[in-house]
Amino acid sequence: MSSSEAPKAIITLTQKLRGVRGAAPSDLSARQSRFDVPRRTAIFGGLSLIAACGFTPVHAPGDGGTQLRGMINIAEPDSRNDFDFAARIEDRLGHDSGAPYLFTYKITIREEGVGVTPAQETTRYNVFGTVAYQITPQGGKTPIHTGQVENFTGYSATALIVGTQSSTRDANQRLMTVLADQVIARLLATAPDWAQ
Asked: Is the pTM of this model over 0.70?
């Protein structure tokens, strides 16, 4: 390569790195704005459709999210899983022993080995959980809202018993958080139908 060809090669390489050959900066901004129009149209069109369908955020003032805060008395936990589950519900909805509604629940857990070595040692477990719940007016006997959610999580077994126990505990705690969040989502979505 001669000394006169070197500057041309550098200019060509620079243009390739920019991704555009011989395009002026004004051409680039025109291209970008042309591509932004469909994106902007889609975004604003989508927002218009959401507004037109009557969608309101669940956490908007006066809606289900704030309406349930402090309105539910959660039944006392009986186990560590119950405690983790109830603590998550309380964190999100509050707790008031004088609340107009009583939230009762029953948690069912089962564990299943899914990873097995050729020596028949289980190395991975799935933990399945189900929560059946109901909302009853304080002092009442007839539930005004019932439901059930289920989910699962997993953990790996280790050669050390302490490590496996820690993994099991962590998996159960994660599962209780996920199940509580599912229950909360359902309660918030249905609150306008049963909460007064």
From this structure: no
